[in-house]
Amino acid sequence: MSFTDISGQPGARQPSPDSATSAGREPPHDLLAEKAVLSAILLDNAVIHSLVTELGDQDFYHPAHRILFAAMVAVSYTHLRAHETRHDLVCRLLREKK
Q1: What is the pLDDT of residues 13-40, one digit of tens each?
Q2: Can you give the three-state secondary structure of 3-56, one letter per residue?
């Protein structure tokens, strides 16, 4: 297993992200935290503007969460049509992804 020094300080070592997947182990993840992030965006869509600087769709472990987050980001940067609600637009974008 390879280790990466993340702080530049001796003794502060963390396993590299690739070592878990290459060794056949599941990488660390928290599905409840992923759901909480997605729920926060649904409750207040202004939250996404502060999240996109910290998170990307590849930061989500569950594939459905990745797709949903990417669709939410696309919606946040797309002008909503007058006749579409956010829910309708997210559903349409998800259907187009297939």
Answers
A1: 444 445 455 568 888 899 999 999 999 9
A2: EEECCCCCCCEEECHHHHHHCCCCCCCCHHHHHHHHHHHHHCCCHHHHHCCCCC
Q: Is the pLDDT of residue 78 over 90?
A: no
Which string of b and e fits 51-82 if b means at least 16 CB within 10 Å? beeeeebeebeeeebbbbbbbbbebbeeeeee
Whole-number Å distance between alpha carbons of 64 and 86: 18
95's CB contacts (< 8 A; 6+ apart) are none
